[in-house]
Amino acid sequence: MKKLIILFLLVILITFIITSINNYENDSHYLKHKGSINHIVAHRDYSSLEYENSLESIILANESDCVDAIEVDVRMTNDGFLVLSHNNKIKTQISKTKISDMTYDEFMNVKLTRETVLQNKNEIIINENFLSSTATDIFNVLNIVETKTLILDIKYGKKIKTLNKKLLKLIEYNDNIIIQSSNINGLKDLIYRNNKIKYQYVIDEPGDFYNVTDEFYGVAIRHNLVNYANVDYLINKGLKVFIWTINDTKTYEKIISETKEYSNEIFYITDYPNILCSFDIKKFIKI
Each residue of 172-200: pLDDT tens digit? Predict the structure, then answer.
């Protein structure tokens, strides 16, 4: 009888330890991913303060307490490496060059440049000096962004299947990663190859809504296409809704008012996380 009591107490102790570990892991995951109550997605990293898709921009977005998710753009170089850039043509201090014609080494040695724009009260002052930022690739963003949601926006060229094969080799199944694109054929090929990853379709015009299927994790909708009816339909279909690109509080307030009770479920993609994070969303929705 004594042995049975000891065994029973031992089972209780083991159960308690396992439950405590699970609770700790869940709490730890929550603390890492809690972000802001605003559901803010940094568009092209922190592109309002650093050169978009640059190493500096990724680091800044990753360190921001108010950013919940980070979106970057992925392209393929001529020799088959995946690098970060929204446009195929990039502006450097020397010339504008197509990434699709460049080797990986050529791209990684580029210093990304742009004109600095400074705002002084009611007037815009343009400084002709160039900012210089560091070009980077998919490996760096995967290594840096570990505790926030990472959205990879795939910019396809002619070699859709080649890019997808390389991408899937680099991406292990991870709850923190979402792959998105406006190229429906590219997404369909990815789903065919691996349907365990989260995929998101970018809606740029009204006709794109017809391409939305249950295979997608979510949709990213251009802000001027958003209305209550389509958000209601998509969320009740089980899809996550992201809205882009909201760069001022007037548009932000309009979207919140339009989407009503779904406002606290939506993710807001912006170049200006600092502006949207300072906006008191609690005035409009119940947290």
Answer: 777 899 999 999 999 999 999 999 999 99
The model scores a pTM over 0.85: no
pLDDT of residue 155: 98
Question: Which region among 54-63, 108-117, 225-234 has the lowest average model confidence (pLDDT)?
Answer: 108-117
Nearest partner of 202 among 76, 81, 73, judged by Cα: 73
Whether residue 121 is predicted with pLDDT greater than 50 in this model: the reply is no
